[in-house]
Amino acid sequence: MSRVGKKPIPIPENTKITYADRKLTVQGRNGMLAREIHPAMELEIADGEVRVRIGRELKNARALQGLTRSLVANMVTGVSRGFERLLEINGIGYRAELKGRTLVFQLGYSTPKEFDLPEGIQATVEKNTLIRLSGIDKETLGRTAAAIRRLRPPEPYKGKGIKYAEERIQRKAGKTGTK
Question: What Rg value do the Cα atoms of the chain yield, rounded?
């Protein structure tokens, strides 16, 4: 049974939620997000909170209830506070710079790698090796951070590459000479 799905989502001040024709729209001080809600789920908006109810029983209805509640909670948090992701670049000569809406990376390849930021995602580069991504849509932010990390994933021997700030790289021992 889903305990997450049963928890109500408090609506912060200056946040407006509308739900009509299976479409949920959340507006706040940072912007607006909209999403289609699964046909098996129902939303109740009352008393300054949102509750997710199971509309019709399906085999995976309880799992959908928890998923829907998490998606709606992320929308509310995004438009009221926003989300942030921090990436670190490790390696000699590895660096990044921001040119307009494009991140340009020097990652040890023969040519620089360019990455165009999607709509709704902002980036700042600090000390050439720290990339701070921010936005209101948690899903888009996570996809963007993962795509940037895929440009040069961290390797286990020297730890060179792009990693999440909170990520810990499991290091391996290098080759040893045998006699």
Answer: 21
C-alpha distances (whole Å) from 124 to each of 31, 41, 65, 151, 163 are 20, 38, 36, 18, 16
Give backbone dihedrals phi and psi of 74, rounded to 5 degrees, phi first: -65, -35
The predicted structure's pLDDT at residue 84: 92
Residues 121/133, Cβ–Cβ less than 8 Å: yes
Measure the CA–CA gap between 35 and 55, rounded to whole angstroms: 17
pTM above 0.90, yes or no: no
Angle made by CA atoms 84, 98, 96, in degrees to the nearest 5: 85
H-helix or E-strand spanning residue 147: helix 138-150
Q: What is the tens place of the pLDDT at every residue in 123-132?
A: 999 898 899 9
For the domain made up of 83-164, the CATH class stated in words is alpha beta
The CATH H-level superfamily of 9-80 is Ribosomal protein L6 (3.90.930.12)
Written in H, E and C, the secondary structure of 108-145 is CCCCCEEEECCCCEEEEEECCCEEEEEECCHHHHHHHH
Residues 171 and 157 sit within 8 Å (Cβ to Cβ): yes
